């Protein structure tokens, strides 16, 4: 292990001395030192004036690539920093610097200047710690808007000393010191800089010699992906060597780093090896941090590991424990993965409810939208989440983009729910639509307005616009025709205008844009009938009415809706054969509602099903709901017949058979 010695009286130090394995390196002039550092960093660093600095580089007696104690410590994927630890002494030798205390100290700092000042107080420092400090500085200064380190950092003598010593003789660095320094520099340094190329060359040499340990292979793999892309040929050798390692020797952090590498180059993945990783990962899930949990879930999505549901389920159980500790980005990744794998769990929903209800006003709009998408996709009817999101939108609607606004509002219609502040919520939405109507993509706008109509918040003020030829042309775009779902939504909105908004006098939807049926594959505004439930009801109806002749199934009405079972009654309330088309006084529409027509694990009807029943009633049908949970309570055939008799021929219905 290499030890970097840093003296406090920097203004008097002008040479580099190397002891132990390197013997005597000749004294260099200060300007030579500065020239070396400049050549190894970004070109924009060359013109800076440097302070004199003297660094002594000590090496372990062993010339092997591993550290002196055989344990390469930090970082694993990235430096691991714990909580702050009290540290009162200003100057310490390496013998007194415990590694864990050192990393805790690094983590306690709030700026890179504090890190560098602390480093300058140390006499000697192992190369692993020096690399960790370098990584910490670069990590703290990371800025997506600027790929350069601040000038004051580049001019800092301790920072210069760190960079220069890693450039002097990389062959004497430990594996961890080498790859961690490389990892730190990939954040900012020009990929063609001499310093970076020197470290890469040494890594390449050790890779070809088979001298890199598992952790170093993982870090090097990620560095190469960042510097040269997933198509890098050297990456094949790294993956090959990792495949030959015993998974039992991987730390949990290394396992997640391996997932990230495979995620970046899915075409290089051996499915048998990936299957082994998935199975082994079951044993390390309990040791993963919130960040690593989100990363492994994201990797499983990218790698399309739909067969690894056992792993996803176990990850989900531990996600519940960490929900309060996820960052916004991490929580978004978790939700995206659960949506992708179709995962839902009662305990996760309860934890998510508590988290959103308590922190909704501080959550990122993208996370709020993703939470609503998750509830919408999984049909989770959660009043705490819906109410909290509604309140957030009323208070902070300006933070949401048009797409996020639509994603946030659509679940209210889909899940058939009006929050307590519905009037304020839809008043705010209406104001946004008035001022930003043209900023909404046409299909997004149509879905949003259609969703509002499902909960009887009819967008009357915007119907004239969406039925206009101009909007319909925008909706179609460059496609030869409008997609089936958009046509169905337009048709149902127009039917809503006729049935529920008689005061609407604007443009009508042209017949060529109207569909004949709302029940179509992939674009249905109705949920298909549950066949097993229908068979049970059909048996009871035959017993009750005396023959199959007296009811029809799957009847398509002139109003686009498909009725599960239709029964015709004459003026005296007697049941007519379904083939009769004359003297029909009343039509009874039986809605045989299976579990898929309700929100998940609830008796709350979905918005589209509630709208269908509402419209059928307005069209003159006697609507009779037959929900699955009532049928499941019946224990015999006689009870079923009695149940149907009560439903169909109650005293106020006027029906007979």
UniProtKB/TrEMBL annotation:
Its main location: mitochondrion. Signal peptide: none annotated. Pfam families: FAST_1, FAST_2, RAP. Keywords: Mitochondrion. The keyword Mitochondrion applies. It is found in: Mitochondrion. InterPro entries: FAST_2 (IPR013579), FAST_kinase (IPR050870), FAST_Leu-rich (IPR010622), RAP (IPR013584). One of its GO terms (molecular function) is RNA binding. It comes from the Eukaryota. The keyword Mitochondrion applies. One of its GO terms (biological process) is positive regulation of mitochondrial translation. Residues 588-646 form the RAP domain. GO terms for cellular component: mitochondrial matrix; nucleoplasm; ribonucleoprotein granule. PANTHER family: FAST KINASE DOMAIN-CONTAINING PROTEIN 3, MITOCHONDRIAL, FAST LEU-RICH DOMAIN-CONTAINING. This is FAST kinase domains 3.
């Amino acid at each position: 292990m290499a030890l970097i010695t840093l003296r406090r009286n920097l203004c008097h130090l002008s040479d580099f001395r190397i002891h132990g394995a390197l013997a005597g390196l000749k004294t260099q002039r200060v300007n030579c030192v500065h020239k070396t550092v400049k050549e190894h960093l970004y070109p924009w660093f060359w013109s800076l004036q440097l302070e004199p600095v003297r660094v002594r580089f000590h090496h372990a007696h062993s010339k092997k690539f591993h550290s002196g104690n055989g344990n390469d410590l930090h970082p694993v994927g990235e430096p691991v920093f714990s909580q702050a630890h009290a540290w009162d002494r200003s100057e310490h030798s390496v013998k007194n610097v415990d590694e864990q205390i050192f990393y805790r100290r690094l983590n306690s700092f709030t700026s890179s200047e504090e890190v560098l000042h602390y480093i300058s107080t140390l006499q000697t420092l192992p190369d692993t710690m020096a690399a960790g400090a370098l990584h910490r500085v670069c990590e703290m200064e990371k800025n997506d808007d600027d790929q350069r380190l601040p000038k004051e950092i580049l001019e800092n003598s301790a920072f210069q000393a760190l960079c220069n010593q890693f450039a002097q003789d990389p062959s004497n660095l430990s594996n961890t010191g080498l790859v961690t320094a490389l990892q730190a520099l990939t954040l900012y340094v020009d990929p063609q800089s001499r310093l970076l190329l020197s470290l890469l060359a040494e890594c390449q040499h050790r890779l070809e010699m088979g001298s890199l340990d598992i952790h170093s292979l993982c870090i090097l793999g990620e560095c190469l992906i960042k510097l040269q892309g997933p198509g890098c040929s050297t990456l094949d050798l790294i993956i090959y060597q990792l495949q030959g390692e015993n998974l039992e020797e991987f730390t949990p952090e290394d396992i997640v780093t391996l997932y990230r590498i495979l995620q970046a180059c899915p075409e290089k993945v051996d499915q048998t090896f990936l299957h082994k990783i998935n199975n082994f990962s079951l044993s390390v899930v309990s040791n993963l941090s919130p960040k690593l949990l989100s990363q492994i879930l994201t990797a499983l999505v990218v790698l399309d590991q739909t067969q690894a549901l056992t792993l996803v389920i176990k990850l989900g159980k531990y996600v519940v424990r960490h929900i309060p500790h996820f960052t916004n980005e991490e929580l978004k990744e978790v939700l995206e993965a659960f949506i992708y794998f179709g995962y839902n769990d009662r305990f996760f929903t309860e934890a998510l409810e508590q988290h959103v209800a308590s922190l909704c006003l501080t959550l990122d709009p993208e996370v709020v939208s993703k939470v609503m998408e998750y509830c919408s996709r999984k049909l989770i009817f959660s009043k705490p989440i819906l109410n909290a999101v509604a309140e957030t939108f009323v208070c902070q609607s300006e933070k949401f983009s048009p797409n996020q606004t639509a994603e946030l509002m659509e679940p209210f219609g889909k899940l058939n729910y009006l929050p307590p502040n519905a009037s304020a919520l839809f008043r705010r939405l209406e104001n946004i639509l008035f001022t930003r109507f043209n900023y909404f993509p046409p299909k997004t706008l149509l879905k949003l307005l259609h969703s509002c109509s499902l909960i009887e918040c009819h967008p009357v003020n915007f119907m004239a616009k969406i039925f206009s030829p101009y909007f319909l042309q925008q909706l179609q775009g460059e496609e030869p025709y409008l997609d089936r779902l958009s046509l169905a939504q337009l048709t149902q909105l127009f039917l809503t205008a006729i049935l529920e908004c008689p005061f609407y006098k604007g443009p009508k939807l042209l017949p060529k844009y109207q569909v004949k049926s709302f029940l179509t594959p992939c674009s249905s505004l109705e949920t298909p009938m549950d066949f097993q439930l229908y068979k049970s009801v059909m048996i009871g109806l035959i017993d009750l009415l005396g023959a199959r002749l007296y009811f029809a199934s799957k009847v398509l009405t002139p109003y686009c809706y498909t009725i599960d079972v239709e029964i015709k009654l004459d003026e005296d309330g007697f049941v007519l054969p379904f083939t009769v088309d004359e003297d029909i006084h009343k039509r009874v529409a039986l809605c045989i509602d299976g579990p898929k027509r309700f929100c998940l694990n609830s008796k709350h009807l979905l918005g589209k099903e509630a709208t269908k029943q509402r419209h059928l009633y307005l069209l003159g049908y006697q609507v009779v709901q037959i929900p699955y949970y009532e049928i499941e309570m019946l224990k015999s055939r006689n009870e079923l017949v009695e149940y149907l008799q009560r439903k169909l021929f109650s005293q106020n219905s006027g029906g007979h058979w």
